[in-house]
Design goal:
Helix content is about 55%, strand content about 10%. By secondary structure, the protein is α+β, with helices and mostly antiparallel strands. The protein has a single domain, classed as Cytochrome P450 (Cytochrome p450).
Length: about 500
């Protein structure tokens, strides 16, 4: 073969590769945009990217780096700050909404938007959980479960047990030396939520269930690759084990009822088995299990991470730590001598501690996004979201917007003094009819933990410059290795 023929072949190969690249780059346009006809010209700015992959590669690359916000920043830099962009996420044509007004509209307009979580997420969380059911079923399920979880009477009952286990855990940690602070907090909040759900369980059972839930949670935002070694495959196995454990607990509870064996403490499982709507319809076992798994995320995962970050942030900022501690000491001073332990009323008077928690929720943004789906063609911010397209409400962009929160990456709980965020600009638990149903319980756990931590302990991180991970949630890679040290408590009377 002469030199001229070789060059011809090389040019043909390069040309074919260039042509293939252009075809692949336009594939999603042909599949999802071209068929919209004139409607395609009203789509938000953006790029659906390559087939199957879309924006997922750049998303995962950013969130596995030290700068997760580079993902959305690259989009806004390219297309401007219009608050709405098209993309391709989790195998579906999608629209990101990043402005408070757009987020509020999507989260509150149940006529135009419905849950749009990826199929893989639904398989892990459950088709009968809050995130997957219809608007009508959601209202029914929320109405039936609201009182057992977030009702005043329920929260008042939970205070004593949460306080008891927090005091015990902190005392234990202070004698253990070096610990993974986040790991211990997650175990603590898991034990609390499982007690509320199922009553007392043995320590080995608790730890086994907590490991299974951790594996499930890691798979929720992973690529849906059901092959050994991948997070999603492990998560599916974990869900199967959790469902089996919860089903066994339900079967045992029903058996005890038939045999007239009653427990002294009525837990959430009892409440879910007993509750019925106005038509006499009760929850079936699948609904009970999916509800319990859903509440685990709000009452365990978010609580543990938020409590850790609040303690870390306060340790970094002595001026805020001092103010938060003084408030807790004042609560003890005002307490009648005959009172033992916290009350729900006292917790609701912790105004500055509430600011600390809200600032932590804003800065960390435990859930970076929620998924919706357009039920009809929807006009938003001057653009069209086609029917069937996914809508990702991007909380991180809202919570870190410098026009809403000056110096947004700084921890400053005092920014909340006499400040009420406008609708759509503070969304740690979502908004609208699908607001996270366990939000009050989560904040109760965090408040009780921080109350006792601030009064009696301090945190000494052993690797304060440790790098962070951002998936599935923001955390130090070492799970916050630290020592929890007991401190003198002489300024106010000690609780008995």
């Amino acid at each position: 073969m002469d030199l001229g023929s070789s060059w011809v072949i090389l040019i043909c190969v390069v040309g074919a590769l260039v042509a293939l690249k252009r075809v692949l780059q336009r594939a999603n346009w042909w599949l999802y945009e071209a068929k919209l006809g004139e409607l395609q010209y009203a789509l938000p700015p953006g790029d659906l990217g390559w087939p199957f992959i879309g924006n997922m590669w750049s998303f995962l690359k950013a969130f596995k780096s030290t700068d997760p916000d580079s993902f959305m920043r690259s989009i806004t830099t390219r297309y401007g700050r219009c608050g709405i962009y098209k993309g391709f996420m989790f195998g579906k044509p999608s629209v990101f909404v990043t402005s408070p007004e757009a987020c509020r509209r999507v989260l509150n307009d149940d006529e135009a938007f419905q849950p749009g979580w990826p199929k893989s997420t639904m398989e892990l969380i459950g088709n009968k959980s809050f995130i997957g059911i219809s608007y009508e079923e959601h209202k029914r399920l929320r109405r039936l479960t609201a009182a057992p979880v977030n009702g005043h009477e329920a929260l008042s009952v939970y205070v004593n047990y949460i306080e008891e286990i927090v005091i015990s855990a902190l005392e234990k940690w202070s004698t253990m030396g070096e610990i993974e602070f986040l790991t211990q907090l997650r175990k603590l909040t898991f034990r609390i939520i499982m007690y509320i759900f199922l009553g007392s369980e043995s320590e080995p059972v608790m730890e086994a269930l907590e490991r299974e839930y951790t594996a499930l949670n890691y798979g929720v935002r992973a690529m849906a690759v059901n092959l050994p070694g991948f997070a999603y495959h492990k998560a599916l196995k974990a869900r199967k084990n959790l469902v089996a454990a919860l089903q066994s607990a339900i079967d045992e509870r029903r058996k005890q009822r038939k045999e007239n064996i009653s427990s002294k403490k009525k837990d959430m499982m009892d409440a879910l088995i007993d509750v019925q709507d106005e038509n006499g319809r009760k929850l079936d076992d699948e609904e009970i299990i999916d509800v319990l798994l859903m509440y685990l995320n709000a009452g365990h995962e978010s609580s543990g991470h938020t409590a850790m970050w609040a303690a870390v942030f306060l340790e970094r900022h002595p001026e805020f730590l001092k103010r938060a501690k003084e408030e807790q000491e004042e609560i003890i001073r005002r307490r009648p001598p005959t009172q033992k332990g916290l009350t729900l009323k006292e917790i609701r008077e912790m105004n500055y501690l509430s600011n600390v928690i809200d600032e932590t929720l804003r800065l960390v943004t435990f859930s970076l996004t929620v998924f919706r789906e357009a039920k009809v063609d929807v006009k938003l911010n001057g653009y069209i979201i086609p029917k069937g397209w996914k809508v990702l409400v991007w909380f991180r962009s809202v919570h870190l917007d410098p026009e809403i929160y000056p110096n947004p990456t700084e921890f400053n709980p005092s920014r909340w003094d006499n400040f009420t965020p406008k609708a759509g600009s503070f969304l740690p638990f979502g908004a609208g009819s699908r607001l996270c149903p366990g939000n009050d319980l989560a904040k109760l756990e965090i408040s009780i933990f921080l109350h006792h931590f601030l009064l009696n302990y301090e945190l000494e991180r052993l690797n304060p410059e440790c790098s962070l991970m951002y998936l599935p949630h923001s955390r130090p890679k070492d799970n916050c290795v630290a020592k929890v040290k007991k401190i003198p408590y002489s300024t106010v009377k000690k609780q008995e």
